[in-house]
Amino acid sequence: MRTTDKYICELLSADNKQGMNLLFKKYFEPLVIWADTFLNDMDQSQDLVQELFVGIWRKKTYRNWNPDKLTSYLHVAVKNSCYNKLEKIDVLKDTTDIDSFDKIYDEFESNKEEIVAKILEEVEKLPERGREVVKCIYLRGMKYQEVADELNISLQTVKTHLVRSLKILRTSSEKLGDFFLLYFFSKK
Questions:
Q1: In this predicted model, what pLDDT tens digit does every residue of 32-81 receive, in sequence order?
Q2: Rounded to a whole number, what is the largest CA-CA distance in the chain?
Q3: Residue 114's CB: how many other CB atoms inside 10 A?
Q4: Fewer beta carbons within 10 angstroms: which end of the chain, N or C?
Q5: Per-residue confidence at 95, pLDDT binned at 50, 70, 90?
Q6: Cα separation of 88 and 18, whole Å?
Q7: Cα 42 off chain centre by
Q8: Are residues 100 and 124 in the same domain?
Q9: Nearest to 115, CA basis, from 184, 164, 171
Q10: Distance separating alpha carbons of residues 128 and 182, to the nearest angstrom
Q11: Are residues 131 and 150 in the same domain?
């Protein structure tokens, strides 16, 4: 049984630590991969996402979360944290501000059918192994280890193919780049 965002938000709104544990279990790995698409450093990505979760718990920002927008909120928070981190090391001096997650989410919802069709078209253009990994994880909802077992590859190889494929998808279309992970992660 998959843990729903609604259930997680209900626990969090009651300051129940189990809600934070479930949030962490459900979103840590996908958010680390998302962060790695910006930072290109898995260790830094893990640290950044862990710091985000600690900050969420300490500041109690979760009390009034909308379960329907939880996924996009977390991804935009990670994206903003990555940009802030990169700005501190002067990599993104001239980068413009990031759109709010509400704007991204609303645009995604209003054009969902067209966006989903484009996303699936881009997935089909991926190299074979990367395409298989993406489909198994995001379209079939498999765990990384299940994918490794099914494809007869190591867990690390699954992660490598996934990171490479997500980077390709992210850059394949400037407009699509804002939406493809929102689509994939909202399915979990």
A1: 998 988 888 888 999 999 999 888 888 887 777 888 888 888 999 999 99
A2: 45
A3: 9
A4: N
A5: very low
A6: 34
A7: 14
A8: no
A9: 184
A10: 23
A11: yes
